[in-house]
Amino acid sequence: MDVDGGTAYSEFVQQTETFLRWFQALPGATFHPDIRIEDLSHRNAGRGIIATKDIPAETVLFTIPRSSILCAATSSLPKHLPSLFTPTATNPQSSDSEDESPSSPSQDSWTSLILILLHEHLLGPSSPWSAYLSILPSHFSTPMFWTPSELLHLQSSAIISKIGQSSADTMLRTKILPIIRSHPSLFPSSATLPDSDLLALAHRMGSAIMSYAFDLEPAPDSDEEPEPDDENGGWVEDRDHLTPMGMVPMADMLNADAVFNAHINHSEEHLTATALRTIPAGEEVLNYYGPLSNAELLRRYGYVTPNHARYDVVELPWPLIERRLRERFNVGMKETQWAAVNDALDEVEDSFVLEWASEEPDSTGQQPDTPPVFGGLPEELDEQVRAFLKAVRKVNTLAGEALEDKHTRKEIYLDSVLRALRDREAEYATPLEEDEQLVASGAVEGRQAMAVWVRKGEKQILRAAQKWVEGVLEELRRSDGPSAKRRRH
Ligand SMILES: C[S@@+](CC[C@H](N)C(=O)[O-])C[C@H]1O[C@@H](n2cnc3c(N)ncnc32)[C@H](O)[C@@H]1O
């Protein structure tokens, strides 16, 4: 992330101080004297919060009053445009409406928050959140903002197809710009901005939401404390586009990792950041975004970390497996028969996700010492290949005879998957060893380094999966199954 977007250092520090003063003046806010907001831009981490003295476990690090959360319940925008904001537990519909577009469709949680952020941002110093908004980044390192040559470093990662630049563009053009254009007084100075500038500003707000906003659950209506593992204490990470979202000043000053030491808890009136274990002086206070792969971390937040590599995944597309399966029966199989095989398959999964067998961090935010292992192929892949082979048996009596043997079926399955795994690895432009060398030598930096981490993680799973399949195949071929006996005759 480029937090200051080129802002001079002194301005960066000044903005931090203004934000902290604003935060501490909020009724009900607290900020522990032994923590400090620090400039971590030298390691591309923007601002972060550091312990200045040893902090005991369970210390409350800071308290955020719910009234300071920027969301549909607190911004003035929904009061002016109530028909656009679906009433929810946290957003009771206002009756003093000045809405001039009663027929406008209501917005989802993303577009609502984009409009709110644009409204508050364009209000400038008259927004109650201006000190907070001024420290939000204006530039992002998410792949949406990468150049085509930077994207090439991601090679064949499936992340490329998930960036969604053009769908975001379409959404902003169709759902955001028309509302701003028809209510210029609610978005001060927007009338002077051409569509291209307004679109860029809306993209910036969308990206800030992606990497800063929390999914906002209704406040608990009893004084019961949420369970510690209750989906981040009621602030869930699943972006389902329906849960209301909010920007939570100070909670979003925390950087995050898969080894972490703090947690955000919620109660009816406020949110609190609490130390999960002793945080030694000088250590960064870290939150947790969930068991995300580095690819997903990069897509949503614009960074990667070695600790997230244990949650890496790689996609194995079905066409690669199907091609290798077909090769086993090509002799004597006509296209019409293949069409019949396809028709016989009910629902075909397009691709299968391979991952490490990895545990979640413990309740103090720590990971097991042991490296993750590859635990096996996904059950759904096994089922889809079984259904495929069953269909082949039906349409091809010659192949059908051999396929009656369970051993043969398993061998065909594993051998085809192994070849598909090799094919998938070959789709990447460089070998795994080269990426490992690049990371170890520190020869790459910035976006290229992040891309190398992503593709290296994916190739490592492909390698581990190949090794795993080779082991099972070897075992199978060694075993004295019925097919082995038949082959000897
Ligand atoms: C919620 S904000 C955290 C505060 C942020 N550093 C700032 O200066 O405003 C999330 C963003 O911080 C950065 N970030 C969070 N954790 C990080 C980490 N472990 N390493 C590098 N950057 C990190 C990423 O740019 C991410 O999109």
Automatic annotation (TrEMBL):
Region named Disordered: 83-107
BP terms from Gene Ontology: methylation
Any one of the GO CC terms: nucleus
UniProt domain SET: residue ranges: 33-290
Keyword annotations from UniProtKB, A to Z: Methyltransferase, S-adenosyl-L-methionine, Transferase
Domain of life: Eukaryota
Pfam families reported in the protein's UniProt record: Rubis-subs-bind, SET
Gene3D superfamilies for this protein: Rubisco LSMT, substrate-binding domain, set domain protein methyltransferase, domain 1
Molecular function GO labels: protein-lysine N-methyltransferase activity
PROSITE patterns: SET
Name of the featured protein: SET domain-containing protein
